[in-house]
From TrEMBL:
It comes from Kribbella albertanoniae. SUPFAM superfamilies: Homeodomain-like, Tetracyclin repressor-like, C-terminal domain. Keywords: DNA-binding, Repressor, Transcription, Transcription regulation. One of its GO terms (molecular function) is DNA binding. Residues 34-53 bind DNA. This is TetR/AcrR family transcriptional regulator. InterPro entries: BetI_C, Homeodomain-like_sf, HTH_TetR, Tet_transcr_reg_TetR-rel_C_sf. Residues 11-71 form the HTH tetR-type domain. It holds the Pfam family TetR_N.
Length: 189
């Protein structure tokens, strides 16, 4: 039986806020998007917006969580985490504002006292695990070299994908457009 009443309305409003925040941040960037603007876009005051999340940091953590959920839904249940990572990196080239949010927020959350620290710890653990399994499968079928341990390759893939996405923010017009193609170069046998 579906939820009714104030709780259901609150859940729906949170979803509306996250959907709108993903759109606005993707279009304008993290630095150019204020909580006041997000609140206005969903018909709330700034205090009303933050009521749904508790803090600005929690709001942006939830935006990143929502981004991951949208990416997962868009890519389906394909078990090849390496292919998914490549597709996400390529997709993110078209939403630089979300890459900016992710890179800024992940750097800030490196501080164990930051509210989103655990989110990133758990995210990286999940991603490393999925990539390790995908690399093992590719090593078993001979499409990835066995010269390095799957766990190490998984860690390098994450570092490479994050780094390439950050670098793509600084790419000059006369640089090669295939910067993001470097991700899968690591896996060539």
């Amino acid at each position: 039986m579906p939820s009714r009443g104030p709780y259901a309305k609150g859940v729906a409003k949170r979803e509306e806020i996250l959907t709108k925040a993903l759109e606005v941040i993707a279009r304008q960037g993290y630095r150019k998007t204020s909580t006041r603007e997000l609140a206005s876009a969903v018909g709330l005051s700034e205090a009303g917006l933050l009521h749904y999340f508790g803090s600005k940091e929690k709001l942006f953590e939830e935006v990143l969580r929502a981004r991951d959920e949208v990416d997962t839904a868009r890519l389906g249940d394909d078990s090849d985490a390496v292919g998914k990572l490549d597709a996400i990196v390529r997709h993110n080239a078209g939403v630089p504002g979300l890459v900016q949010l992710y890179s800024t927020f992940s750097a800030e959350a490196g501080d164990p006292q930051h509210g989103a620290h655990e989110f990133f710890v758990e995210r990286y653990q999940r991603l490393r695990h999925a990539l390790t399994e995908a690399v093992q499968a590719r090593q078993a079928d001979g499409t990835v070299s066995t010269a390095a341990a799957p766990e190490k390759i998984a860690t390098l893939l994450i570092a490479l994908s994050d780094g390439l996405q950050i670098q793509s923010q600084f790419q000059l017009p006369d640089e090669p457009a295939d910067l993001l193609d470097h991700l899968l170069e690591l896996l060539r046998p």
